[in-house]
Each structure stands twice: as C-alpha cells, then as structure tokens.
Design brief:
heterotrimer; A alpha/beta (336); B mainly alpha (465); C alpha+beta (431); B: 465 residues; two-stranded antiparallel ribbon; flat; C: 431 residues; alpha+beta; MetI-like fold; 3 domains; four-stranded antiparallel β-sheet; 14 helices; 68% helix; transmembrane (chain C); transmembrane helix (chain C); AA_ABC_transptr_permease_3TM (chain C); membrane (chain C); MetI-like (chain C)
C-alpha cells in the first residue's frame, strides 16, 4: 500500500507541475496556436490548401517570426465570435487575433489583456439597395441579423433604443457564414457588423452590387489581438510585436530594405533592429527579433496594403489607421 | 329404364361435382386488390391519396436530379437558368468542383493516395468480415480490429511522432537517459525509458501478485504485464518510426474522411467500453456500481454538443499547461464516451435477458468470474442485442455531424462551407448539396440497418435449429 | 493471468491473504478506483483553480443579476435587453421546453400514425410509411434541421410577396381556375365571396408564419376561468361516466359532452363580459408585417425536423409494440364483434403500450437533447443563449456549462420519472 501511495504521489507531481510561461510552452510545442475568424476576406481566410492569409493572420505570423524566425510555425484555429473567449481562457490558443473589439469588460472581468488596436473600426449596416434607404435612422421595424457573441449584438439594441426606433427582431446566428447566408436569403432586412467586416462580407455575396453599406457609423470598434491575464512576458511579446510593426513603418523599414537598414546610422532604427542594445531580450527573445518580423511579414503598412488596402478587393482607405504623423492614430511606442 | 334408376337413392348424384370457382371478385388479382387496396371506402380514399402522393413526389425528384440536371460546367453560369435557357435541376458540377473538399477536407493533394489506401484497405478487410461464408474470420477480425487501426493511423497522420519520454521521464527522471540522441530517427531516451519502465512495471506486477496471490503468481503476472507492454510498444514503434511519410495534421482533415474516422473510432471504442460499463453497472462492488450508474446516466442526460463544446474549448482549463490533446481526438473521445453510455444500456438489456441457470452452470464448471463472462454470458447476451448495438452505431454515425458545432468540418460541415462559395451560388445549389450529402448518409445508415436485419434473421434461424 | 491463477489455486489454499478472496479483491479494486477518482477530481479542480486565479477571473453566480444587454428573437415571457442574464437564462430554458414539448406531441401523433400505417393491409400506405420511416431515421438530425431551414424555409417568398392562407385565397383560386376553363359565369360568385372575406389572415414568408393574434382585453380573466372550470368539469364527468359504465354497463358520450362543456362555458363567459377578446390581424407595413403573432422560421425548421425525425423512431417502436401483442388478442376481439378500429383502440394499443412506453421515454429525451441543435440555425434555445451568448459575455465558463448540463439532466430525470409513473400505470397487472 505504501508503495502504491508513493507511486500515486509521483503521478500527482505531473498534475501539480507549475504552469510554465506561455512563451516556453510555445517554444516546446514548436508552434504558436493562434485563434482567427472562420473566414473573412482580408482578415483571415484559408485557401483550398488550408493556407491562411489576411490581416489578422499576418499578425500571428509576425509573432511566430519573432519567436521561431519562421512565419509558418503557426497553427490557426478558426473560431466563431461566440467561442473565441472560451478558447483563449482555457489555453486552447495562445493569442486571439480575430478582429475583437477592445472593451472594458473583456479587458478586466473576462481575464484578458489587449495588446493594442491593430484596426480602428466602427459598426455599420449592410442593406439591399432595392430598399431605397438613405440612412440607418430609417430602419424602424426592420429585422436585423447579427453574429452572436459580438459587441455588435449589444450595440444594435442600444442604437435602436437611443434613436427611438423599434426593431422587429434581432436574430443572432452562431457563425458569420450563417449570419450572411440568412441575410442573403432575405431572412433579415439588414446585417450589422464592423464596417470592415461588412466590406468583406459584401464581396462574398452573389451580387455585391445589389447591396450597400449605410453611411452612419454607430459605435467605436477598436479591434486588436489579445492574450490571457497572468503572463506578463507573453503579453509584452505580443504588444511589442504590434509596436515593432508600427515603428518599422514609421522609420521606413520594410520587407525589402530591412537588410540595408541594419547598417543605418539612425539610432532609432538601430535600437529597433537590435544593432544597438538588446531590447529583444526583455521579451524573452534575441536582439534581432524585429528584423525577423519585418522580413517575414513586412511592416504595419505593408500588411495593411497587402490585405485591406486600396489595391485589394476590399479597398479600405487607411483613415484612422494611418500613422499618427500621417493623419491617423496608429502610434508605435519607442524602443528604448 | 336402366339400373341406375333403380338405385335406392335416386336423387343422389354418383359423381362428385367439381367445386365452382370462387366469384371473380374473390380470386386472383381482384381479391388481392380488394384485400390490400380497395376493401372499403376509407381504404379506397387512402389508396388514392397514396398514389397521388407517389406521383406528386417521385416524378419531380427524377426530373430535378436526373432529367433537368446539369452535368458539366466550370462555374455557376452552367447552372443559371438564364444562361442555360431551360429550367435547371440539380447542379452536379458544383459537387464535382467540391468533391475533393468533401472527401478529404484540406488533406494535401499529393498525399491523398494515403487516404484512398486507408479507404480501400478498410473496405477490403471489412467486406469479408461481413459476409458469413468467407473463411478465416478470426484472422480477419484481428487484422481489422488490431492491425488496421494502427496502419490507418500511421498512414493518415504520417507517423514519425518523435516521442520524447515515457513513464520515468514524466516522473522526473529524464536525467537518466541521453536526451536528444537518436538511432534511425527514434529517440534513444524514449525507448530506453520504455524498456526500463517496462521492466520495472513487470517487476512491480510480479511483486504485487506475489503479495496478494502467493508465490506462484509472480511469474504469470510479470509475463502478462510484459506482453501487454509489448503490444503497446509495437503500436508506439509503428507510430514513432519514420516511414518516410510527410506528416499531415488533423486540422487539415475534413469531409467524409473526418466523418469516417470519428465514426469508425467511435464504433470500435464504444463497444468494449460500453460492455465494461454494463458489467460495472451490474457489479457487486458498490463503488464500481455507483460510478458506472453515474457515468452512464450523466452522458445519457446531457446533449452531445455540450460535451463537444466542453471537450473542445474548456478541457485545457482542467489540464496542466504543457499537456495538449489533438482537437480531433478530443471530439472523437467525446463522441465515443457518449456512444458507450448508450451502448452500456443496450448490453445491460442483453445481460438481464440471460437466465440465471447460465451463470450457475458456468460457476458449477468452476469458471472464474472473468471467464464466466467471456465464455458463457457475454456471447449469448451480445447476440441477443445485436439490433440494439447496430442502432447505436447508426446513431453514432449520425452524431458525427455535430462536430460541425465545434468547427471541425465533417461531410456536412464541408458541404455547408461549400454553400458559401459565391462562384457556385445558384438557385439549386442547396438542393443539390443536400441531395448528395443525404444520399451518402442514407447509404451508410441504411446499409448498416439492413445488414443488422439480415444478421438478426440469420441468428434467429440458428436459434430455431 | 487467469491461467496462472487457476494452477496456483492449490498452493494458495490455507493462506490468509488470497487474491481469490472476494472480500479482499473487492476492497482492493474499490480502493484503487476511489483513489483514481479522487486523484482525477483533485487534479481537475487544482488545475482549474490555478488557471482561473492566474487569469484573475472571479467565480460565482452573481453574474446572473447583471444586465444582459442583448436582444432575443423569441421569448415566451416579457424580455428586453435591460433585463438580467438570469432572465435570459429563463427565456432560453422556456424556448427549449417549448420546442421540446411541441416536438414531443407532434412526433407522438405522427409516429403513431406511421407505426399503424406500416402495419396496414393497404400496400400503398404501407410502402409510403416504410419509406418515410427509412428516410427520416437514416439521415442525421442536424442534416434535417439545416435542410428545412436552408433549403425549404429560406426559399419562401419575401414579406411583400407573402403567401396568404385562409378562405380568401381559396375562393379567388377557385374563381380564377373556373374562369380559366371558360366557366366565367360560375366564377363570379366565388370572386364575390373572396372579396367578402377580405384579406387573408395567415401569411407565410421567409420571416416565418404570421398569424392573427387574440388580444385579451379587460375582463378576459373570466374566460380563462371558464376554460379551467370546463376542463375540471369534463374530467369529473369522465370519471363519473366510467364509474357508471362499470357499475351499470350503460355508456355515456363523454367526448361530445366534454367538448360541449369546453366550447360553451367560455363562450357564455365571453358573452357575459361583453366579448373583451378581439383578433388582431397582421398587416404589411414598411419592411415587415406589423401586428399579429409571428412564428419564426428557425423555430419552425427545428420543430419540423425534430418531430419528423423522432416520429420515424416512434413509428418503429409502435410497430414492434403492436406486433408484440399476440394475434390471439386481435382474433378474440374480432370474435367479440369489434371492428378493426375499436380492436386497435381498445384491445391492441393498451396492451402494446407497456412495450412501447420505455423506449418512447428515451425518444422523448433524445428529442429534448437534440433541440440544442437549434443553435445551428439561430434558434434562441438554452444552449444558444446561455452557453453561447451569455458565456461569451461573462466568461463564467465553468458555472455556465455546469448550469446548462444540470438543466438538461434535470429535464431528463423529470421526464424519466413522469414516464416511469405512466409506465407503472399501463404495465400489465397480473391478477
């Protein structure tokens, strides 16, 4: 019996083992587990070989590049809006990069930390042109389709209430595809979501030209990646990946010229690229972490232009998402 | 006057008359029709209604799926009535375009032959097992239930797991073995650990057996432990060895492949586990009995999707950080546990139907408990509940669709994803897709139910002889 | 293992400790099982505790009082987004119970019809019923829900092109049919009738089924009381009639008199209170119909799929139940002069019920659990509202999943208890 108890005690040590840091877990595993949306053109879509691309996807690739020097060491977990937080809380994913709105409750009671705002967005309405609506104040009596588990679901009822309108019904669907399908089949008069998402969804409709996005923006939707509470090192790593992307754009470091920039005399560039100082070690990586990021994915502007910018089918102007010195509010913290 | 007239019974005919044929209304097809179709006014009405229904349903279906159907094309234009110029039925090119996703998911194109081999191997091994007349049933069963899963597993995942540590390693003795050293791609640390652990386990088992069962039991216990570990080692070796296949992650699997993997693993795992649970529920040991009852009733009481949700998104919360379990595996385990609770109840029904005399007879022969169950009770009990077991298999097969709720794309999920492709958005895409998926599900489920009926009939006949 | 044990039996005899000693063996097994269970439970608890405290998530059920903030598309009780998560939980629970309750009723009716039809002598009916059973039983329920929702209901016309149901469309349909075959003279009265009944009251479109809604004005409580009184009275009447029949053999038309009670009493009450009830008819205004009662397509799809699916299983249960009643019973009933219908109703089905009830119970439970698949089409049931939206907003994963599972378990247990009680009543009483 005594021997049995000893063996049992040995097993217990397996369970009680202190939780190593997320970065260590990721390194042991050899891949980053990244939660993305289930298919949203421009942000995260798989091709027919299940290779993912998009704005949110590239952010995870940047993290993987910083850790492994290989942007492909990411396992993408497609998540519906409703399931994303449970997956992050439980540890099924390491970082959630799924156009998630930064709200106070998510940042506090839900137990997450937002690493920044990678995309400043706002909520809008998509309707059929044939309805002849001029603005969202004319939506009284409409049936509204929305994806469940989003901030949009909460905003829409507030908006109707605040403007003295009544919706006929708000039908909440489990996934984006279901919501869009329902809107397209005529189940609802209007589909509401973040404007970037509306632009992406419109492209997936059979006849995009039959649908328009109403001019009003009814809410602030700062979208960004987030991590769990309780691991400051990991939080720092994700946060500074974001800042490095912004700083690289601001300093003119891009995918093409990053090798030349290594010999740049500019002290800011030198600190960012690790030729001066070892700032990367502060987040558990090596000094040249930002070089790896920019080489793999380019800077913030390149990621934006490649996935969302005017040359893509989505054609979204930078607007608020321009750098602070170019009329936007994207502002990378200095590496120092 | 002839003699005849002198007969004492003049009025009696000496020859028997042939019986007159029944009236036309009561023989041949008319009688059949009266009995089966036009017996009474309500019968006539029902028959007419039925015939109308048949004509209302079948010709349009044939029209839609065959006559008006489009068979060739490269995009939605082929199936748009405006472009084609006539009413369009099923849009089969949509299925052809998506067939790879529906059968393999995102499984890499160059590696799909592996899936095909697994499909073919499964069929080749399963068919003779199902046909009664084919000999070598025992060997066949071993191949199908023992070897095939390992082969299929290695083929589908690519094997070469790169196992790092076994028991001792996890217990904190990694230092004993040369970490990182490999021989022929196999980790020395793992296999040294495995051998040492096995030896230690065998010794422990021998000591325990000696302690509780007397000095003679030690050797047997050690031998049994070693052979069990030997089988485990063979399986692990097969999974660990580098067979030169490119590894394919389960997240790339999809479509029919996922449906079949979940169904087949669930089916093979739920039967033994269900039997164990059923035996546990009838056990004399109060703790075993209570645990079995709680387990069975819990799984039977909650919807499968809550279980899948828990297994997919919440389980890591309850496990230590470094332990990760493959997503598909978690879903498979959820489905299998769910099915085994139902299986347990079916098996329990069979166990209850075995007369007490059978138990007593086995005991009188001096068979210990495990042999009594294995040789006498279970074979009879399982035979009795074959229909119930197959019904559970069918239920499990249908339940595989629920993994769609946790973002695993089985056949139905892949079909649903295909519906969202704007390149194939036509008025008839949905019906075509549902028609195709429906036929696939129907063929599998209906096939299983027919086979079980045939089996039941055969066993019934065997009982009567 | 067993071989070794068998051969060693002789050597073992006489020792106090023996593996074959059932007492020792059972306590060793149970202690081991107990330890494993305690270890599992403890490690689950410890890991969850450690993970949650690291995340700084507060646990507990206080979130149930917080403002929910989201709208729910179908609710049986008054609900708006300013109410609490607890209220949302209740709304979801009621929606689950609603679809389960109606589904059970529909499935039972359809299942019994199909089960009897499968045993019909009429080959056409028999073949149709068999086809129905095979098709519904062999397709996954989720497939059927999606089929009804995506392929059938979503293709219905938009609100502006709604199909009207009721007398008006029938009359105008007849009128146009008659004039089409050149009998315009006969068509005139029908179009007149169509105009007289006015607009249809029931509409079907891709937003659902829109029905007239009874609006209860002041004093309509009296009608409700009258309905209750009538129900109780007809129940008492039925008992009295049965007693009298058993005592004297004289039958009493219970069904018709009960029906009369249930119709007449509320009518009288309505007349006495000056008809406080009026019907609100739906009307197309703006995007949608305003007024009336609308049944959402998500609900219809779920209800249709669940009840037709389960009916396939019930039909098989009913069929085997009827077959389990020996043929002698039917023949005896016939020889007593009972016709086919009464034989089935009075002799066969009551005996078949004891075979039917236990598997029927598990079908009812399956239907209830399958109602959680409504989440796939956006029906706001318990799983969608509570384990979906509420969980997403509050992050209280463990509490919410535990509550959701507990609710389903309680529903299961209650249904089992009710059916167990009923089963005892219909079970064969041996005298």
């Amino acid at each position: 019996m005594k021997r049995f108890l000893l063996a049992a005690a040995g097993f217990l040590s397996l369970v009680g083992a202190a939780h190593a840091g997320t970065l260590d877990d990721v390194k042991t595993r050899g891949a980053l587990n990244c939660g993305v949306s289930q298919g949203l053109p421009g942000f995260s879509t798989p091709n027919d070989k299940n290779e993912w691309s998009g704005f949110d996807v590239d952010f995870c690739r940047a993290i993987a590049a910083a850790i492994f020097n290989d942007p492909n060491k990411v396992k993408f977990t497609p998540l519906s809006a409703k399931d994303r937080f449970t997956a992050l809380t439980s540890g099924a994913i390491d970082v959630l990069s799924r156009n998630t709105t930064w709200t106070m409750s998510r940042d506090t009671t839900l137990g997450f930390n937002f690493a920044g705002v990678t995309y400043y967005d706002g909520q809008g309405f998509l309707v059929r042109k044939s309805l002849g609506l001029k603005g969202s104040k004319e939506l009284d009596g409409a049936s509204v389709c929305v994806q469940t588990g989003t901030s949009n679901e909460l905003n829409v009822s507030d908006y109707f209430r605040a403007n003295g309108m009544k919706y006929r019904e708000v039908i909440a669907f489990g996934t984006l595809d279901e919501t869009v399908k329902a809107y397209e089949s005529g189940r609802c008069d209007v589909f509401t979501s973040d404007r970037s998402q509306l632009a992406a969804v419109r492209l997936k409709l059979t006849n995009p030209a039959d649908h328009i996005v109403l001019p009003e923006t009814i809410s602030k939707e700062p979208l960004g990646p987030l991590v769990r509470h309780g691991d400051d090192q990991w939080f720092d790593l994700v946060k500074w990946t974001y800042f490095a992307l912004l700083d690289a754009e601001e300093l003119g470091v891009n995918q093409k010229n990053v090798d030349e920039m290594l010999s740049s005399p500019n002290p800011e560039v030198k600190r960012l690229l690790g030729t001066d100082g070892k700032y990367g070690e502060g987040i558990g990586l090596t000094a040249d972490w930002a070089v790896r990021i920019v080489k793999a994915t380019g800077n913030y502007g390149e990621i934006y232009d490649r996935n969302l910018g005017p040359s893509t089918p989505l054609g979204l102007e930078r607007g608020l998402n321009n750098l602070w010195n170019k009329g936007g509010i994207q502002y990378g913290m200095p590496v120092r | 006057m002839s003699d005849q007239t002198l007969s004492p019974h003049v009025f009696v005919s000496s020859v028997l008359l042939e019986p007159a044929p029944p009236p036309v209304s009561d023989r041949g097809p008319v009688r059949w029709a009266r009995a089966h179709l036009f017996g009474s006014v309500p019968q006539v009405l029902l028959t007419l209604f039925g015939i109308w229904l048949v004509f209302a349903v079948i010709p349009p279906l044939v029209q839609f799926f065959l006559i008006d159907a489009v068979w060739e094309g490269t995009d939605r234009k082929a199936c748009l009535p405006a472009d084609v110029g006539h009413p369009v039925g099923a849009c089969w090119p949509f299925i052809w375009a998506k067939i790879n996703q529906l059968t393999y998911g995102f499984y890499p194109a160059d590696e799909r032959w592996r899936v095909n081999v697994v499909y073919a191997l499964g069929a080749v091994l399963l068919l003779p097992l199902l046909i009664q007349k084919v000999p070598y049933k025992r060997l066949n069963a071993i191949l199908f239930f023992g070897v095939y899963p390992v082969v299929a597993f290695v083929l589908l995942t690519g094997g070469n797991f790169g196992l790092k540590r076994f028991l001792l390693g996890y217990l904190g003795f990694d230092g004993l073995f040369p970490i990182g050293a490999t021989v022929a791609g196999l980790s020395v640390a793992f296999w040294a650990d495995f051998v040492v652990s096995s030896a230690l386990l065998a010794l422990g088992a021998a000591a325990l057996a000696r302690f509780v069962a007397g000095p003679g039991a030690g050797l047997g216990a050690a031998r049994n432990t070693l052979s069990a570990l030997g089988i485990l080692g063979a399986v692990l070796l097969a999974a660990d060895i580098d067979v030169g296949l490119q590894p394919v992650e389960t997240r790339l699997w999809g479509g029919l492949l996922v449906t079949l993997v979940i169904a087949v693993t669930g089916i093979t795992a739920s039967l033994p586990f269900g039997i164990l649970l059923a035996l546990g529920r009838r056990s004399h040991l109060p703790l075993v009995k209570i645990c079995s009852i709680l387990f069975i009733e819990f799984w039977r009481g909650v919807p499968l999707i809550t279980v899948l949700f828990f297994a997919t998104y919440m389980l890591p919360l309850f496990l230590p950080g470094q332990l990760t379990i493959d997503g598909l595996l978690r879903a498979v385990v959820g489905v299998a546990l769910f099915a085994s609770a139902y299986m347990a109840e079916v098996v329990r029904g069979g166990l209850q139907a075995i007369p007490k005399g059978q138990y007593e007879g086995a005991m009188a022969l001096g068979l210990p408990g495990s042999l009594k169950m294995r040789l006498v009770v279970l074979p009879q009990a399982l035979k009795l509940v074959i229909p119930g077991i197959v019904n559970n298999f069918i239920g499990l097969f249908k339940d595989t669709t629920l993994v769609l709720i946790v973002s695993i794309f089985d056949l139905l999920g892949a079909m649903r994803a295909a519906f969202t492709d704007p390149n194939w958005a036509t008025p008839t895409t949905l019906f075509t897709g549902f028609g195709f998926a429906g036929i696939v599900y129907f063929v599998f489920c209906f096939g299983m139910s027919r086979y079980s009926m045939a089996l039941e009939k055969r066993l019934d006949r065997a009982r009567h002889h | 293992m067993s071989d070794a044990r068998l051969s060693d039996r002789g050597a073992v005899r006489g020792r106090r400790w023996s593996w074959t000693d059932p007492k020792l063996r059972s306590s060793v097994i149970q202690i081991a099982l107990g330890l494993v269970l305690v270890w599992l439970a403890w490690s689950f608890y410890a890991n969850a505790e450690a993970n949650l405290s690291r995340l700084g998530i507060a646990s507990g059920f206080s979130f149930l009082d917080d403002r929910a903030g989201f709208a729910i598309s179908q609710s049986l009780i008054p609900y708006n987004e300013n109410m609490s998560y607890g209220r949302a939980f209740l709304v979801g629970l009621l929606n689950t119970l609603l679809v389960a309750f109606l589904g059970v009723i529909l499935a039972t009716i359809l299942g019994f019809l199909m089960g009897v039809a499968r045993l019909s002598r009429n080959v056409v009916i028999k073949a149709l019923a068999s086809a129905y059973v095979e098709v519904t039983r062999n397709l996954p329920p989720l497939f059927q829900i999606l089929f009804w929702y995506l392929a059938v209901l979503a293709t219905l016309p938009s609100p502006r092109q709604s199909w009207g149901l009721g007398l008006q469309p029938i009359f105008s349909g007849i009128a146009s049919g008659l004039s089409a075959i050149g009998l315009g003279v006969l068509a005139t009265p029908f179009s007149g009738l169509a105009a007289a009944v006015g607009a249809p009251d029931v509409y079907v479109n891709n937003r659902g089924l829109i029905l007239p809604r009874p609006v209860f004005g002041e004093g309509s409580g009296a009608i409700l009381i009258a309905v209750l009184v009538a129900l109780v009275a007809s129940f008492v009447l039925a008992r009295w009639a049965r007693k009298r029949r058993e005592a004297t053999g004289r039958p009493f038309p219970v069904f018709w008199s009960g029906l009369a009670l249930i119709v007449v009493l509320p009518l009288l009450a309505a007349a006495a209170t000056g008809f406080p009830l009026h019907i609100e008819t739906p009307e197309l205004r703006g995007f949608n119909f305003v007024g009336g009662l609308s049944v959402m397509p998500e609900f219809v799809a779920l209800l249709l799929a669940l009840s037709t699916y389960t009916a396939g299983f019930i039909a098989e249960i009913v069929r085997s139940g009827i077959l389990a009643v020996s043929k002698g019973q039917t023949e005896a009933a016939h020889s007593l002069g009972l016709r086919g219908g009464p034989t089935l109703r009075l002799v066969v089905i009551p005996q078949a019920m004891r075979v039917i009830v236990p598997p029927l119970t598990s079908q009812y439970l399956n239907l209830t659990k399958n109602s959680s698949l409504g989440v796939a089409v956006g029906y706001p049931d318990l799983f969608a509202i509570f384990a979906g939206t509420t969980l997403n907003q509050t992050g209280q994963a463990i509490e919410i999943i535990a509550m959701t599972m507990a609710v389903y378990l309680v529903i299961s247990i209650v249904t089992s208890l009710i059916m167990g009680w009923y089963n005892k009543r219909v079970a064969l009483v041996e005298r």
